[in-house]
Amino acid sequence: MSIFISLGTNIKDRLKNLDTAINLIKSKNIDILSSSKTYETSPIKNLNQPFFLNKILMIDTIIMPDDFLTILKLIEKE
Q1: Any alpha helices (H) in the chain, and if so which ranges?
Q2: CB-based contacts of 67, cutoff 8 Å, min separation 6
Q3: What does the pLDDT look like over 19-56, one tens digit per residue?
């Protein structure tokens, strides 16, 4: 099943955070079919914080949605 996910970070080394997230996703046997360019966005609600770096991934997985969400939350904590 193909899924689009959004990655975003505004903490410390933002590029490294995106690369780490992508590598962790790959390590879970999730195929990344394509990815967007990296783009910068401003914060929306709390304007007193750094800008975000974002990327969209198109992935392919057979992992069930609830399990997939659990995996993404664990990656986010790392």
Answers
A1: 14-27, 65-77
A2: none
A3: 999 999 999 989 999 999 999 999 999 999 999 999 99
The burial of 21, by beta-carbon neighbours within 10 Å (0-12 exposed, 13-18 middle, 19 or more buried), is given as: buried
Q: How far apart are CA 59 and CA 17, in angstroms?
A: 18
Instruction: Look up tokens 């609600």; give the residue.
Output: 45
First-to-last CA distance in the chain? 25
Structure tokens at 59: 């992935």
Kindly report the pTM of this predicted structure: 0.91
Q: Which two tokens stand for residue 77?
A: 């904590």
